[in-house]
Design brief:
By secondary structure, the protein is α+β, with helices and mostly antiparallel strands. It has four domains: 4-94, GIY-YIG endonuclease; 257-385, Nucleotidyltransferase, domain 5; 393-590, UvrC, RNAse H endonuclease domain (Nucleotidyltransferase, domain 5, 2-Layer Sandwich), CATH 3.30.420.340; 597-658, DNA polymerase, domain 1. Helix content is 42%, strand content 17%. The protein has helices spanning 39-46, 55-63, 75-89, 137-147, 158-167, 172-175, 189-203, 207-223, 227-245, 297-314, 339-350, 362-385, 389-404, 459-478, 519-532, 565-590, 606-616, 619-624, 627-631, 638-649, 651-658; strands at 19-24, 30-36, 66-71, 96-99, 105-108, 117-120, 129-131, 257-264, 268-277, 280-290, 329-331, 355-357, 412-421, 424-434, 437-438, 444-447, 512-516, 538-543, 548-550. The strands form four sheets. Strands 13, 14, 15, 16, 17, 18 and 19 form a seven-stranded mixed β-sheet that branches. A six-stranded mixed β-sheet has the order 4-10-9-8-11-12. The protein has a three-stranded antiparallel β-sheet with strand order 2-1-3. A hairpin with a 4-residue loop joins strand 18 and strand 19. The longest helix is centred in the C-terminal third of the chain and has 26 residues, at 565-590. The radius of gyration is 32 Å and the shape is flat. Residues 317-322, 451-456, 482-492 and 654-659 have low confidence and may be disordered. Residues 16-95 form the GIY-YIG domain. It comes from Pseudonocardia asaccharolytica DSM 44247 = NBRC 16224. Pfam families: GIY-YIG, HHH_5, UVR, UvrC_RNaseH, UvrC_RNaseH_dom. Belongs to the UvrC family.
Length: 659
């Protein structure tokens, strides 16, 4: 780690203008992005006495090797640039918002010819409209069941939709009038879309007009003595009103607002947001934040609104309020220092005026207090669920450092695992953990190229191939192969793609490389690193049988306590690599790729392969069988049996068997 004084800008070179700055590590990877009204005063605070800094801030400045800045003209430009850089570089030390749970939403797939209504969890997609989030999936299903009576839209999956279209009969919902049955042509695509759009309008808050229209139709049907139609419309109105009763009216003036509240301590904070549309609470959502430096509530408000609504604007077209990414009003516990600039930026995202204020009295103040109580409750529950989580991760990294004799804590750990079936279809996985947490965007999958005589025939050789490919790529992308000196060129930075400005895939080495296995696997990985001249990456192996930790050239394993946080972290890393490898292997097998040595036998199709494997149980037993035994399998004659035996064992063994 470098001391901040080694890269501190020269006195007088940092301007006093507003701007955005970023800290980078020795390999050019951006690790923190921030903005300031005065770059000089803000950056000077990082280069004060290191011992007086917040622990996470101290770790950040010690991990950095350079600081850069960009001067902007206005606070609005600074907000936009900071948001863009955070999204582009994903700095590890910036505040990260994690959903405290995965909330279900009601999704409407408007990007399909026949839109579908369904419960959904996961990332937002363009062309899909979302309503919620809701606290429970059953709440969505109850509401949807009520509304399908009035808006009989499709809710089935694509496979069910195609199947009923092929057989020409609707499903049960079509027969009980809870689906318009577009699969069998009962309604056209345009008519079905109109039903879906009315459904979206109702959930968006345009309820009074729709109920008045149904009331008018019911009265007309009654006057025309169409009593069955009038009774059906009456029941539809009742269903709509029951659906509305499930959404409490909290603001009688039809307010369109998001209400935000925080609960926090020195290390973490909880955020709660109530989405109020047309005076009703349409959804509730929560996040947990890891603080990087001392942060006030006003600063949390600014950073949260910037990241949350910036992301909502990027998904414009999938917002749940008439495609508006930002509501008309945002109620917060405290105004940020540059509230006017933030409001101006939000106004630009919405396209019309956005109010940003602190509620002082009345119903809005009461609702803000309710949201604050929810934030406090969520924070308490988070602390109970994850008591000592950050401390446990730090303790685990420290235990690993001490047990393996490392120079520093392994902040980045990579693990390699191999998966195959009797030496065929060999694949491998590489997973990455940073600060004790999985970094899935850096996971990699490998198809082993060694074949039956090389890497594919044994785990150590396969691990050696993966390690060689991974670290050759690292040497190439970091510039080490060409002798490029890190940090000497202010324009061309090793590890950074000059075209995109993004980190290259393999430009950063781990502090610790873990392999799944014992001494043979560890020695194979260590030999490759020595061959490539890499000396700053530690290697260890975790054997499954007794959970022993093996080091290169060490005859005895390192034994960690069964209750050790360090062992628990290594197990999680190893198990995640195993899961990732198995998943990839199953995907390849499901796509019909090479699965057996029997594929090399001329004229032996899938049916005969299955017959052989069923008869002998495995390829190994089949190899050990004589040609006469193979000929006993139904459907095999002497000639075919001899061909199978020769393909699996070679001509010499066939001649010996004949003798």
């Amino acid at each position: 780690m470098a001391h901040p004084s080694s890269y501190r800008p020269a006195p007088g070179t940092v301007p006093e203008a507003p701007g955005v700055y970023r800290f980078s590590d020795p390999r050019g990877r951006v690790i923190y992005v921030g903005k300031a009204k005065s770059l000089r005063s803000r950056l000077n605070s990082y280069f004060a006495d290191v011992a007086g800094l917040h622990p996470r801030t101290r770790q950040m400045v010690m991990s950095a090797a350079r600081v850069e800045w960009t001067v902007v003209a206005t606070e609005v430009e600074a907000l936009q640039l900071e948001y863009n850089w955070i999204k582009e570089f994903d700095p590890r030390f910036n505040v990260r918002y994690r959903d405290d749970k995965t909330y279900p939403v009601l999704a409407v797939t408007l990007n399909e010819e026949y839109p579908r209504l369904h419960v959904y969890r996961g990332p937002r997609r363009r062309g899909v409209r979302y309503f919620g989030p809701y606290a429970h999936a059953w709440a969505i299903r109850e509401t949807l069941d009520l509304l399908l009576r009035v808006f009989p839209a499709r809710t089935c999956s694509a496979g069910v939709f195609r199947r009923h279209g092929q057989i020409g009969r609707p499903c049960l919902l079509g027969y009980i009038d809870k689906c318009a049955a577009p699969c069998v042509g009962t309604v056209s695509a345009q008519q079905h879309r109109a039903i879906v759009e009315e459904f979206c309008e109702f959930l968006s808050g345009r309820t009074d007009r729709m109920i008045r229209e149904l009331q008018r139709q019911m009265d007309e049907a009654a006057e025309a003595l169409e009593f069955e139609k009038a009774a059906r419309l009456r029941d539809d109105i009742g269903a709509l009103r029951r659906a509305l009763e499930k959404q409490a009216v909290v603001l009688g003036d039809g307010t369109d607002a998001d209400v935000v509240a925080f609960a926090q301590d020195e290390l973490e904070a909880a955020v709660q947001v109530f989405h109020v549309r047309a005076g009703r609470v349409r959804g509730q959502r929560g996040w947990m934040i890891d603080k990087v430096e001392p942060t006030s509530t006003a600063q949390l408000v600014e950073r949260f609104l910037t990241q949350f609504y910036g992301e909502q604007a990027a998904l414009a077209g999938s917002a749940d309020d008439a495609h508006q990414p930002v509501p008309r009003e945002i109620l917060v516990p405290e105004l940020p220092p540059d509230a006017d600039s933030l409001a101006e930026w939000l106004t630009g995202l919405r396209g019309s005026r956005v109010g940003l204020r602190v509620p002082q009295r009345g119903d809005k103040r009461a609702l803000a207090e309710t949201v604050a109580r929810n934030a406090a409750e969520a924070f308490t529950q988070h602390k109970l669920r994850r008591a000592g989580d950050l401390t446990a991760r730090s303790a685990a990294l420290q235990e690993i450092q001490d047990a393996l004799g490392l120079d520093s804590a392994p902040l980045r750990i990579e693990c390699v695992d191999v998966s195959h079936v009797q030496g065929t279809d060999v694949v491998a996985s590489l997973v990455v953990f940073e600060d004790g947490l999985a970094r899935r965007s850096d996971y990699r999958r490998f198809e082993i190229r060694g074949g039956a005589e090389g890497s594919g025939s044994n785990d150590p050789a396969a691990i050696a191939e993966v390690v060689r490919r991974r670290f050759r790529r690292y040497l190439a992308e970091s510039g080490a192969e060409n002798g490029t000196e890190t940090g000497t060129d202010p324009v061309v930075r090793p590890g950074i793609d000059p075209d995109t400005g993004r980190p290259r895939k393999f430009a950063y080495p781990p502090n610790l490389l873990v392999v799944d296995g014992g001494p043979p696997q560890v020695e194979a990985a260590a030999d490759v690193l020595a061959e490539l001249g890499i000396t700053d990456v530690a290697v260890c192996g975790l054997a499954k049988r007794l959970e022993e930790v093996w080091l290169p050239a060490d005859p005895d394993p390192v034994i960690l306590s069964r209750t050790s946080e360090g062992l628990y972290l290594l197990q999680r890393v190893r198990d995640e690599a195993h899961r990732f490898a198995i998943t990839y292997h199953r995907q390849r097998r499901s796509k019909g790729m090479v699965a057996s040595e029997l594929d090399a036998v001329p004229g032996l199709g899938p049916a005969r392969q299955r017959a052989l494997l069923k008869h002998f149980g495995s390829v190994r037993r089949l190899k050990a069988a004589a040609a006469k035994e193979i000929a006993e399998v139904p459907g095999f004659g002497p000639r075919t049996a001899a061909a199978v035996h020769t393909a699996l064992n070679g001509p010499a063994q066939q001649e010996a068997a004949d003798d």
